[in-house]
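Quick start: read one record
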Amino acid sequence: MDDLLIWGLILLVLSAGLLVIEVFVPTAGVLAITSTALAVAGVICLWRFSNEWGLGGLLTMMVVGPGIAFYGLKIYQQTPLGRKMTGADTDEKMAEDHDRLAEQLRSRRQLIGKAGVVITELRPVGVIEVEGLRHDALSETTLIRAGARVRITGVEPGHVKVRGTDERPSEPA
């Protein structure tokens, strides 16, 4: 093989490697610019070897470069540094949110079977009051008018499920 072919292929492989490293090592674009320069030099070497190799190297870099950048950024968003840079939740924050929701669900499970009063009409979503606390509620049946009595049948994150009862609300004394 000719030296130009070997150098062209080596430069293209180095270019792709630097682009992969750029995704994981924040260098403010220095590695990306170097990678681009190596790709251009590699394509020039291939083109000087033959037109077919030059065209093949150019088309390869036009597909491989953006492909590495696209998938690299997709992967980068899942890394701790990537989550910090994009403002996404960290692992600790996601764990805290999960624990908080699990605790909220556990405490709401104690409401199952308790009776409450509808504050706003359930169409099918509204607000109920149970033991002096208001909860977002979802009617499992049809529309339930404000002031009607309901019984909690289930809990989900964010709301409780209710069914209307035949009981009338007691009038305050």
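The two ends are 100 Å apart (CA to CA).
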